[in-house]
UniProtKB/TrEMBL annotation, chain A:
It is a multi-pass membrane protein. Residues 4-131 form the Threonine/Serine exporter ThrE domain. PANTHER family: SUCCINATE TRANSPORTER SUBUNIT YJJB-RELATED, UPF0442 PROTEIN YJJB-RELATED. The chain crosses the membrane at residues 50-69, 76-95, 115-136. The keyword Cell inner membrane applies. It holds the Pfam family ThrE_2. This is Threonine/serine exporter family protein. Keywords: Cell inner membrane, Cell membrane, Membrane, Transmembrane, Transmembrane helix. It comes from the Bacteria.
TrEMBL record, chain B:
Keywords: Cell membrane, Membrane, Transmembrane, Transmembrane helix. It comes from the Bacteria. It is found in: Cell membrane. The chain crosses the membrane at residues 117-139, 145-162, 174-193, 199-221, 233-252. It is a multi-pass membrane protein. InterPro entries: ThrE-like_N (IPR010619), ThrE_Dicarb/AminoAcid_Exp (IPR050539). This is Threonine/serine exporter family protein. Belongs to the ThrE exporter (TC 2.A.79) family. Its main location: membrane. Residues 14-252 form the Threonine/serine exporter-like N-terminal domain.
């Protein structure tokens, strides 16, 4: 568990450097990535499906990134990218590819379908959090109007 | 006084320059449009329309004078999150009325000419460490940590070199992943590391088009269908290039 915490933090901050993120944002990138990966890892360890785990993790990554973006007045994308990359089903896609090459199409197509679903789950996570943020913002605006 | 100093920069030139920098650094479409409109409005333009796709900007200002429409073709696209942040905060300062037209243009030119925040060597070092970490995250053993770092770092170095020579993104990704495959196989064959699969997956991660994928999704949500789909196609092509590079190596050996 501890090695997962440390490696995911370092990996996400490393992506910040590869993508030329501003220096102040590197540690925050690492934090977002670590949080997302820990949610995903914890859920998969506790026999949740990888598709659902990806959805929940990307949802929380987007929420936290949005919070950071508003707090530090920087574009959201800086924080989302670093967090999202570990969730990309690279391992599965690789295995699917390998089975395609070995002419084992039955397994390959099963794996490819799984890859597709996980990618869709990540997208849905981002979409849900976007909608969630809009609702929260609208409620906040309404409350403020009432007070005034 | 030289010519450049005397010139009066118009609002649309500044907006298009800002948009161009953001788009070339990999910003989301809606953010580019929003920034351009905001800058134009804070300089006093009333009716502003902008249409941005990953390859072109169309920008139009409507006012008391003649309607002014300009188009800018975007040739190269990279990833530079720092420039996006700088332009974003610059547009904020413009809205607060901190800069005049001339000053804003000078600032934008400075941003456009600025080099990357991190040197190439630091980026390669980051790729090296990232690859090693991903081997562990995908439940590889610590035996494969160092081999993962070596192949990942070497792969990224090759990617930067090939990308500079060939200038066709997909081709350099294809060749790089093939090189990574060969390196991983050679290392394991010579007794360094145990699982070829884990090493390859970890080392390929720095090439994954993460920014393009998230941008594609965010563009699609915000209703920029053309940009979203084209970026999705870009991400798919990259994934195919990486996948087929690896596939060829596995198929051969």
């Amino acid at each position: 568990m501890l090695e997962q915490l440390v490696t995911s933090f370092i990996a996400s901050s490393g992506f910040g450097i590869i993508f030329n993120a501003p220096k102040q944002a590197i540690v925050k990138c690492g934090f977002v990535g670590m949080l997302g990966w820990m949610i995903y890892f914890f859920m998969v360890e506790n026999t949740f499906d990888a598709v659902f785990a990806s959805f929940v993790a990307s949802f929380f990554i987007a929420i936290v990134s949005y919070y950071f973006a508003r707090r530090y007045k920087t574009p959201v994308i800086i924080f989302t990218v670093g967090g999202m990359i570990p969730l990309v089903p690279g391992g599965l896609a690789y295995n699917a590819m390998r089975h395609f090459v070995l002419n084992d199409y039955n397994v390959a197509i099963q794996l490819a379908a799984k890859v597709l679903f996980i990618a869709g789950a990540i997208a849905m996570g981002i979409i849900f959090s976007e909608v969630f943020n809009q609702i929260v913002r609208n409620i906040q605006l309404k409350i403020r109007k009432k007070h005034v | 006084m030289n010519n450049i100093r005397k010139r009066n920069y118009t609002i649309d030139e500044i907006c298009i320059l800002a948009g161009q920098i953001m788009l070339e650094s990999g910003a989301e479409t809606y953010r580019v449009e929003d920034t351009m409109n905001r800058i134009a409005k804070s300089f006093g333009a009333e009716y502003v329309e902008s249409y941005v796709t990953p390859t072109a900007i169309v920008f139009s200002i409507d006012g008391d004078e003649i309607t002014n429409t300009k188009m800018k073709r975007i040739e190269k696209r990279g990833t530079d999150l720092n420039k996006i942040t700088v332009v974003n905060s610059l547009s904020r300062e413009i809205s607060e009325g901190k800069w005049t037209l001339q000053e804003a243009y000078q600032k934008l030119i400075e941003v456009q000419r600025a080099p990357f925040v991190y040197s190439y060597w630091l980026q390669i070092l980051a790729a090296t460490i990232v690859s090693g970490c991903f081997v562990i995250m995908f439940r590889g053993s610590w035996v494969d940590f160092i081999p993962g770092m070596i192949t990942g770092g070497f792969g990224y170095l090759c990617f930067l070199i090939i990308d500079r020579i060939v200038r066709v993104r997909f081709f350099s990704e294809f060749i790089t992943s093939a090189i990574i495959g060969i390196c991983a196989l050679l290392l394991v064959y010579n007794g360094f590391g145990m699982e070829v699969d884990k090493i390859i997956i970890g080392s390929v991660m720095p090439l994954v088009p993460g920014l393009v994928i998230t941008n594609a999704i965010r563009d699609l949500i915000s209703g920029h269908l053309v940009s979203g789909i084209t970026k999705g196609a870009e991400a798919l092509l990259t994934a195919m290039a990486i996948g087929s590079g690896i596939a060829i190596i596995i198929g051969l050996f």
